[in-house]
Amino acid sequence: MTHFQTRLQRLRDRMREQKLDAFFIFNFESSDSPNLCYLTGFPGSAGFLFVTPKRAVLMSDPRYGERLGKETQGLEIVVKQPRERLYEKIAEVFKGLNVRKVGFNAPTLSVQQYLELTKAFKKKKAYVRLKPMEGVVESLRFIKDEQEIAAIKKAQRVTDKAFDYILGGLKPGKTEREIAWEMEVFIRTHGADNLAFGSIVATGPNTALPHYDPGNVKIKKGDFVLFDFGAGMDGYCSDMTRTVVVGKPTAEQERIYKIVLDAQMSVLNNLKDGVKGKQGDKFARDLIKKAKYGDKFGHGTGHGIGLQVHEGPSLSVLSKATLKSGMVVTVEPGIYLPGWGGVRIEDMALVQNGGCVNLTGAPKKKLISV
Residue 87 is part of which domain span? Predict the structure, then answer.
């Protein structure tokens, strides 16, 4: 059994629990491409998956005709021709499957698309009752299999190498945008398929902005420089943040850095199977709060990562998740002081029964001075 067949079976188990006749993935203009890719391996921008207890049918269009057969072994393939109307074709497939109660991923289907589907069902006399659902496939993606973990590790190895390369050429006078471009070129020319997301490179007071777009600001001696970036490999993402200082750090810079590092290590030393996501956040938040910077840490401690750079489970005050072996999460506490600067340190951790394995190899034990 391939890992895609295993994933489809896990979805069927959920369908049985919910007493569904089928589950439907509607991926139009990449609206639900991560879930479709997870279940089938098909990465196209338009694909429609019909899963029943016995069958799995993938529909797309002639743009992907040849790829459908090569990249999606074991699925029934339907190719919608240009003359055929999309919603009516979907209704025809449903009618052929003879299903009634069908779950679908509500967040990725617009109201207009839902209305078009129900209209087509009526026209084609396909007696389907759609049940809006949320997080069915996403929750299956929380736990990574061996193939997924291997891809994430590969992506992180490129990311580690990129950080080492950038540090070697970091100096006053370079702009944030120049450094971001150098990182992208290195990542794309050293084995990665793409960037996992738009890289963050911030310097000086800009490091106090957790999400920041690199600009033409030049690095100055004594500045913090914050890097938040990752690589995409075999469809999977890596995510890492490091904060360094150009020149000799001040006592205050070293002190803030140590608080953040201690907070991060508090999480990494306590993550294991059975820990609540809310508790994972608390390990870091309590330490930063004790240091009198609680109001300067305004985001969650971490998030899941995989086909998307941000997915479940989360490490946050609002998290309802319980960590299980095979989950991969980021651990990224920070302190941000407006007008002065900020520090964030981020690693990826693979949860295991007795703890976790840090997948990030870039140095961080002390504030790096370049």
Answer: 3-140
Amino acid at 263: A
- pLDDT of res. 1: 73
Identify any residues that bridge with 237 across adjacent strands, giving them in sequence order: 232
Which segments in the chain show pLDDT lower than 70? 69, 71
Kindly give the pairing relationship between strand 101-105 and strand 129-133: parallel
CATH code assigned at 12: 3.40.350.10
Is residue 205 reached through a cis peptide bond, with omega within 30 degrees of 0 on the bond before it? no
Identify residue 86 by its one-letter amino acid code. L
Last residue within a domain, chosen from 123, 140, 157: 140
Instruction: Determine the residue type at 85.
Output: R
In angstroms, the first-to-last Cα distance of the chain is 50
Regarding whether 276 and 350 lie in a shared domain, the answer is yes
Please report how many Cα atoms fall inside a 13 Å half-sphere around the Cα of residue 271, on the Cβ side: 35
Nearest CA to 316 among 348, 349, 284, 281? 281
Evaluate if pTM is beyond 0.70: yes
Neighbours of 222 (CB within 10 A): 14
Nearest to 357 by CA among 320, 334, 331: 331
Pair (181, 291) in one structural domain: yes
Give the amino acid at 116: E
Residue 189's pLDDT is 98
Same domain, 173 and 315: yes
C-alpha 82/C-alpha 65 separation (Å) is 12
CATH code: domain of residue 304? 3.90.230.10
Question: In the structure encoding, which two tokens stand for residue 361, read together?
Answer: 């190899």
What single-letter amino acid sits at 77? I
- DSSP E strands: which ranges in 29-147? 46-51, 56-60, 76-79, 101-105, 129-133
- What pLDDT, in 10s, does the model give residues 251-270? 999 999 999 999 999 999 99
CA distances from 191 to 56, 66, 153, 209, 293 (A): 33, 26, 13, 30, 40
